């Protein structure tokens, strides 16, 4: 790549109409993801460019599609696994155990035993209970102390559930580890997913540095700084700004450059690669006494399948249609296919009048969607079509899972 050349986030060139035709979506009632493999490659290049020297450990929980694991593994990413199932998935993709961090501070014993048997030796901890568990069951572990550092503006914070206080709790946990002759090698944090308060990273890195000093003073060989996740999946400028803050903070806090910095990006790598094509199968109209009309469309995917984030993160869906953009718009609600009234994909949307059989397109659907699908009401995960425009013959590889 030419030095100084900036790659922006990938601009989609997927021909949705062609996909609908090729896959005969008109004749089925299944929604379809289109996964653009090239998007992962671009994201990886951008990561290398903006976060040089910070090794990404892809957070498998975000999207456990085997195609993601295999593609990122080939590109050189390492992995953040949070359970035995995730570790198994990654090991089965021929990833070496040293490339995995078990980033779950509260580990069930059988999962810890599985990690031990399979050589996954680095894990996060945030309490003395977990330290005692590790001492008893896997004392050869490399331990990373997870501290709490919540950004003030995020889609979802984890601080109430995970992460000890860097000032009042972490030192005591580290001293207990020392007493038990355990091996503490670093500090981790997660500012929260979908982080919009960028200085949170600087705050957390500065707190981590203080604990590095504390650990070094007490004889630990502190080498690992894990800056967690929270990076945007489809906003290049925000990611760039974040990367500047992070690089600056690392340089200021760790000027000696003798530490190993890793991150656990989830959303960043997968959000923009997946576009979901849904079909309207039913329609209703409601009229208020003031005469205002709302159009209701019922589609073949919903919050119990791919749109859990509408409920969990209060995500406002981005929706496209294939009709003329100049047509008049109407107040619209989009419903998922199940009986549950919570199954509402979006409301107060402005869309043209559509009919049963028309399609709605949802871009940026790769994060926290596929692994969250349930079988509620007889529905289940939507199919995935993989497009790879960078395959060696310059063509495309189409496969439906
Ligand atoms: N690391 C840990 C420990 C997490 O819990 C999560 C998300 O839940 C991630 C990384 C990925 O976060 P994001 O998708 O915001 O990058």
TrEMBL record:
PROSITE patterns: ODR_DC_2_1 (PS00878), ODR_DC_2_2 (PS00879). This is ornithine decarboxylase. GO terms for molecular function: ornithine decarboxylase activity. Catalyzes the first and rate-limiting step of polyamine biosynthesis that converts ornithine into putrescine, which is the precursor for the polyamines, spermidine and spermine. Polyamines are essential for cell proliferation and are implicated in cellular processes, ranging from DNA replication to apoptosis. One of its GO terms (cellular component) is cytoplasm. InterPro entries: Ala_racemase/Decarboxylase_C, De-COase2_C, De-COase2_CS, De-COase2_N, De-COase2_pyr-phos_BS, Orn/DAP/Arg_de-COase, Orn_de-COase, PLP-binding_barrel. Pathway: Amine and polyamine biosynthesis; putrescine biosynthesis via L-ornithine pathway; putrescine from L-ornithine: step 1/1. It comes from Musca domestica.
